[in-house]
Amino acid sequence: MAITIDMAARRIEAAVGDLVADQDQRAIGLAGTGLTRLWIGQELHVRIQQELSAEDPDYRAEVAVAAELEVDGWTLRLSGRADGVQYAGDMPLRVDEIKTLHFAVELHNLYADERLERFRRQARLYAFTLSPPGQPIGARLLLVDIVTGDVETEDIEWDPAATAAWLRQLIHRLVAAERRRLDRLEQLRQAAELVEFPHPQPRPVQLTIGEAVASSLGEGRHLLLRAPTGCGKTAAVLHPAVRVALSRGQRLIFLTAKTLGQRIAVDTIRAMQQGLFRSLQLRAKAKMCANAEMICHEEYCPYARDYGLKLARTQLLRNLINDDAHQDPDRVYHAAVQHELCPFEVSLDLLSEIDVLVCDYNYVFDPDIGLAAILNQGALRDAVLVIDEAHNLVDRSREYYSPALGSPLLDRARTFLEARDNAVFRELRVLVEELAALVAEVVAAGLGPDRLGDAAVELPADRIADLRLAFDGALLSYFVYKREQDLWMADDPIVEVFLTLMRLHRTLAEGGSEFVHLASRAADRSELVKICCLDASRFVGKVLEESAGAVAMSATLEPFEFYRELLGFSPHRTDELYVPSPFPASNRLVLCIGDVDTTYRGRAAHYDRIADWIARLAHPEHNVLTLFPSYRFLEAVRDRLPPVGHRLLVQEPSSSDAIQAAFLDALAGSERHLLLAVLGGIFAEGVDYPGEMLSQVIVVSPGLPQLSTERELLKAYYQEFYGHGFGYAYLVPGLTRVVQAAGRIFRSAEDRGVIVLMCRRFQDPRYSRLLPSEWTDDDPSSLLREDPASEVRRFFDL
User: Fold this and answer.
1) pTM for this structure?
2) I need a surface site. Which of 271, 323, 453, 646 has the fewest CB within 10 A?
């Protein structure tokens, strides 16, 4: 639990471990309290406790401690669990504190290390709380070697008066720190009134959005906001959201699916900042790693070694905060590297100092990555969330709860284990083979011996639980071996197998109708089993409900009902706002080519017609983006394109960020281009085409998701639970991609452009109702023209 201080009641509540914690001694990786140390430490704790209990029937492990102490007019309520207590009847005689170490590496330094005094202090504090009045009990420290299991014992001398004096000093420090925190909150409340809109004058549409955001968040409610691309919704949302958060002493967290959204948010925040509040942009761990390989281990990474000591000695956090109100990841990286500190850990330590955080969805919604500083101990109650491009969160959140284990990873683990022959690796080989057999059996049960594709299956939960437990034990020996042999690597297939198995086990334990199990076999005969989450609303909704309020915004939150239900927004706590396009209708021409069939069955007969329409519609003096539902469709039409007056650019499945940058540079030049790309790809979403880089978008097909076993399971689930099977599984995702792609053209009131929708299905009311009403005026037939090519020329010639 966190330390809580009630100044009015003069009351402090704290866990014993929190009171003795010393951030200056924090370590990273196995030498600290990382994943590996926890696995090993837990095993050894239990073993030592069992041995002590076997020796003495009056010995009790994991003894709950709760005590109230009066110190200088303050009530201190302590809680915790002592590792072990020796009793005589009901009278405690001695308390034990058990700590695990790697003797060969750490023991010789421990006696010159403040960490040993922290261990002793924890034992003294447990003894202090358990001692009857006037009868101090004994205290003992047990140091256990994680390699051999050897134990070194130290009887700790302690004096109740000295411990009380230490507590008195600690309480005064905590109270002083709390007063500083409250003073800062008061400063932020006053600063909230001074935060100005980041542009000279808000547009009318921004005023409308701002009023709705302020109203919803001010009442602790959520808001679903649908507003067109380019209307300035980021500034319109952030300005009131920051003011509300600061006025209430809360943190604002701006969440994005893509880096572009973070850049826009940071620019907006900096324009409002004026030194009034602090902000941080959190970059992905892999991109912040300064080591040659991403191995978070202080014996392998110099940036992790003695992290806590170096952080305290350099005063880096205070220097960063004092130098600039915004913590840019590049700046944090270079400052951390200069002092040989882990840049990502420095970013995490900065969280306690900042008021506005900009980061990826993962850090709040992914159960495997979510930040403890945000998610633990009720911290979300004091967090306002702004979810950018929220239409992306539906599929992203499903992925968080859809672990998969397949033969490619298991084959990598086999290859790695075959390179060495010892007892540790032989035990792991047996477990990996058992996992591989499980995958093969489940796939064969679902698909038979030869069939390719996917099939619904039932994963054996008991076998997976047993294998998870067996891996726990084997991993203890494996990590000890790794330490002895200095066998550290950035991409350890054994750790990856275990983490995947752990996710499978945890997700199976969640249970629920929103999960189905799939088996698949690819053309290369690789096999995979997967837990497919059809609906993550239960998990996303829990985060949202714990928060102080959330704004989910996008140009494509249509229909609201879909996003409210699938993101878990409480209908009783959620407001909705639709803002129509504020841009002049005369700047926009939307056409539909209705004599084309792009359905899977009908498209082949229409490839030539589609290619001809693209050539006729592409205006020779403007860049044109043409989007297809798949690469196969794109290639078929590309091969049939007649000569056009544009240079052709084609997105490939392997197109990288570098290719994207090169294509964007070409579009910015004087030569006119026709770019063929896919819906939902790097040229259709999350990319800006400023100025006149792009003036025309041709969308070939509504872009419905491809038919698959998983998609059909989604359809059945959505029909059963929401009554909208085809609509939720196919129509909404497809039309969302269409509207997102078309929105690339319009970023300001001055932008002019043409949107062409190519397929007869855009005239179907089921499809057209999901298009923006300003496109169709509620009459999709208005998009049909006798001579569309002439309409395009006439529009651009005005």
Assistant:
1) 0.88
2) 323
Reference 438, options 494, 493, 505, 499; nearest CA is 505
Q: Which tokens belong to 61?
A: 């492990």
In a domain, 483, yes or no: yes
Q: Is residue 394 part of a domain?
A: yes
Please check whether residues 590 and 650 belong to one and the same domain.
Answer: yes
Binning pLDDT at 50, 70 and 90, where does residue 105 land? Answer: low
Domain hosting residue 642, numbered range: 585-797
Could you tell me if residue 207 is inside a domain? yes
Per the structure block, which two tokens stand in for 648? 């052709």
Q: How many CB atoms lie within 10 A of CB 347?
A: 23
Computed over every residue of the chain, the mean pLDDT equals 90
Confirm whether 313 is domain-assigned. no
Here the CATH number for the domain that contains residue 101 is 3.90.320.10
Distances (CA, A) of 334 to 53, 207, 266, 353: 52, 39, 19, 19
Task: Please indicate, yes or no, whether residues 755 and 657 belong to a single structural domain of this protein.
Answer: yes
Q: Are residues 25 and 87 in the same domain?
A: yes
Long-range CB contact pairs, 427-432, < 8 A, 24+: 427/474, 427/477, 428/474, 428/478, 428/494, 431/467, 431/470, 431/471, 431/474, 432/497
Q: What is the DSSP letter of 276?
A: S
Q: How far is CA 753 from the centre of its chain?
A: 35
Overall domain count for the chain: 4
**Which of 107-111, 141-145, 256-260, 264-268 tops mean pLDDT?**
264-268
> Tokens 């968080």 belong to which residue?
400
pLDDT for 482: 79
